[in-house]
Structure formats: C-alpha cells, structure tokens
Amino acid sequence: MTDIEQWLPLLIVVFTIFSIILLSLPSTFGADIRFKKDGYPIKTRIQVVVLGDIGRSPRIQYHAISIAKHGGLVDLIGYTGSDLHPKVTSNPGITVYRLSSAPDILKTNNKWLFSLFAPLKVLFQTLSLFYALGYRTPPAKWLLVQNPPTIPTLMVAESICFIRNTRLIIDWHNFGYSILGLKLGLNHPIVQLSRRLERGFSSRASAHLAVSNAMARVLRDDWSLKSPVLPLHDRPFSQFQPLGESQRTEFISQCIATSSFKDELQSGSMRLLVSSTSWTPDEDFSLLLDALVSYSELATRTHPHLPKILAIITGKGPQKEIFLSRIKALTNAEKLSHVHLCTAWLSVEDYAKLLASADLGVSLHTSSSGLDLPMKVVDMLGCGLPIVGWDRFEAWPELVREGINGCGFQSSQGLCAALASLFGSENRRLEDLRRGAVLEGQRRWDDEWDPVAGKLLGLCT
C-alpha cells in the first residue's frame, strides 16, 4: 500500500469536516444583493444590536426608526423585557429578533461569585448572539452595535462582520471597562482585560459614533482609532415636547401619581420634582434622599415659605428595593415631613407628559468614565424642563449650561441649596432656566442623526 493510500481515509475525513464547516458558516453579504420589502426596493439592510433590553435602550430604538424612515431595512436584535417604542413595533421596515436571556443562576451581585459565573454567562451570551447575527438574520451591509456591554458583544460583532463581509459601526455610549470597574474596581484583572479587549476589537471597526465630544476626543487621541470617530449627541425624540397649561392641568388631574395633589400643584404650594433612574451604582440615589431630608428640615425650622415637594422617581433597576425601604424608614421617622416621595413606571407617552408637567428635573448620573451623558436629561430638556444634576464629570457642560438651562451640584447640601433657591418665593430664576431648557430642546434627534449617521450610512445627503 502506498503512502497516499494510507493517508487517503484521513484526508477524506478532514476534507469532509472542513467542507461541513464551510457550508455551515453564515451566508455573506455581496455588493450585488438587492433588498426588497413587499416588492419595493430598499436602500440598504442594517443589523442594529444591543446586548440589553431594547425597550430600555432608547438611542438604539431611535437609530432603528431613523434608518427605516430613510428607506433602510432594519434587523433589531436584543432582549425584549420592556415595551418597545410604538414606531418600532408598527414599522414594517423593522424586524425585532429576541435574544434568549442567560439563566438566572448565572446572575449575581456577589463580587466573588461574579468572577466564577461571569465566564459561563459570557459563553452563553456569545453563542446566543452569534446564532442571532449569523443564522437568524439575513446578511446586511452594516452592523451597528451599542457599546457597552463590551464582552462578548464586540468580539461576536467583529467575527460576524469578518465572516459575512459586513461593515461594523460601534455606537459608544460609555466605556464597558469603566462600568465593570464600579463592581470590581478599576485595577481588577478582569477589568484590565476588558479594557484591552475593548480597545483591541474597536480598532477594527469601520466607523464610530460617540455620545459626546469628550468621548470622541478620547477615542481619537488616547485610543488612536484610525477609522472615523463622529460625535452624535443624544437629542429628544418627537414625543418629548412642552405642554400648554391646560394640557398640564389635565395630565396632573388624571395621572395616578399626581391626581391626589392636583390642587396644591396648581396653586404652587407644592412643586413637582421628577427624577429618572435605572437604580444602578453609577447613580447615587442617597444624594437626593439626603437633600430632601435637609430641605424638609429647612422648610420646617427656618424657611417656612418653601413649598412642599412631590418627588416622583421613575425607572426600574437592581437597587430599587434597597432605596424603597430607606424611603419608608425616613417617612416613618418623619424626616420627610415637607416631601411626598413615590416611584412610578410609566409608558413612554405618560413619562413625556410627566416631564413636561414637572417644575424641575434631577439627574444623579455620575458617569463611570466622565465622558457619557445621561439620556434622561436630554428627554427633560426636550420637554422644556430645567435640570439640576451632578456635574463633576467632563462631558456635563456639553448638555447643561450653568444658569442657562440648569445648574449643577456636587453634594447633597449643594442639591438642597439649589432646591431651596429655585423653589423659594422668588422663582424668576426657575422660569429663566425653563426658557433656556425650551430653547435647548428645540434641536431634535433627526437634526442630529441625519447629517451624521444618516450620511455615514448613505441614507442622507
């Protein structure tokens, strides 16, 4: 028997396995592909990806809506725990693909268990995301992915783009390693590894969108990214609009959270304060609680002219129950005698009306990197609502101009002082801030998206 005859069976097996692998790879995108929807030509097909709850990712939904509006076909991929924007569910150009969530046993807030379970959770997410991008969805010209989370999102997205001949765009909301650092510490080996992976995978993207000028500068100068880095600020979507006085009165009378206090709110003896939170470590909610306790003490002892406050906190998140128990304890101890504090989870439409009906918005976002900007502030400004917010991070002045459409604070005492000043008998300053907020909110998402992302994707001229 010759050497060739001896090796022939093995070569046949290897060739068969190799052929099966090649045949099982995802289909690729080609320039000759023509997209159609219901018989009508489509400009391009784009996968829009977030490894998170689509319903709680407004920027990703706005991307999808804008792409479809300008003639693109969108495959929107992510988790579907919350209600989606009506323009996502009703648009025939947008198809939503639901990702399977990791088993609950792999979810933990314990620092040591996290290090043990994290690799297993990442493996599950990797397989789920790869299957969705490579097999459940058709080949696309572009893949737009939200970062963070970084692991395994960027790795999977990069692999899919290589296999399917797709161009990758990273939409930078923050740095993934900095958020992970809130849990483990920036010097933790996993955090340092995450930073290197984030920088490595991002270097091969075709383009980058950044939520702030400060973040774009870091990506260009410090990370030395060679592909285009384009600032794309968040701007309010169409449903976030100021309300007229009659509309405000109607909403306050009908909303469950405000109806019991409608007379006081209309007379001005009570002010409506709104804050939206995801109840995560990058928002120190104790700042607001401590400030409201100090405000109550101030109003009771030395400043009896100060109005009461109805504080409504919207949102869902992992630390909500902790703060609800603290709120209950403070209320029982009569530490919030001048404040009524409640939580709410509203539809997008009612949330927009609540913001437009409020007297003041509060942002507790501290920014793990110092470079991102809170979407909630964008929505507030869109409704003409002035802002008080934590301002000790670099990107803050890009959104809120001190004394023009809001003001900053750096402690609970500073927040209490701002509330007392703005809600005092001389409320001319609050009205000046409201006019500034209305002016800032006039620039809308389409005004920002069309000349930046729309032009990049070839959908706008």
Give the termini distance in whole angstroms: 69 Å
Main sheet: strand order: 5-4-3-6-7-8-9
Could you name the ranges where pLDDT drops below 50 across 5 or more consecutive residues? none
Which structural class do you get from the secondary structure elements? alpha/beta
What is the approximate shape? globular
State Rg.
25 Å
Percent of residues in β-strands: 15-25%
Main beta sheet: strand number and arrangement? 7 strands, parallel
User: Helical segment tally?
Assistant: 17
The percent range for helix content is 40-55%
Summarize the SSE layout with pairings.
Layout: H1 3-24, E1 35-37, E2 40-42, E3 44-53, H2 58-69, E4 72-79, H3 86-89, E5 94-98, H4 111-136, E6 142-147, H5 153-164, E7 167-172, H6 176-184, H7 189-202, E8 207-210, H8 213-222, E9 229-231, H9 245-254, H10 262-267, E10 270-276, H11 286-301, E11 308-314, H12 320-332, E12 339-344, H13 348-357, E13 360-363, H14 375-382, E14 387-390, E15 406-409, H15 412-423, H16 428-440, H17 445-456
Parallel strand pairs: 3-4, 3-6, 4-5, 6-7, 7-8, 8-9, 10-11, 10-13, 11-12, 13-14, 14-15
Antiparallel strand pairs: 1-2
Any overview of this molecule?
This protein has 461 residues and is α/β, with parallel strands linked by helices. Helices cover 45% and strands 17% of the residues. It has 17 helices and 15 strands. Strands 5-4-3-6-7-8-9 form a seven-stranded parallel beta sheet, with helices on both faces. Helix 4 (111-136) packs parallel to helix 5 and helix 9 (245-254) packs across helix 13 (348-357). The longest helix has 26 residues, at 111-136. The radius of gyration is 25 Å and the shape is globular. The N and C termini lie far apart (69 Å).
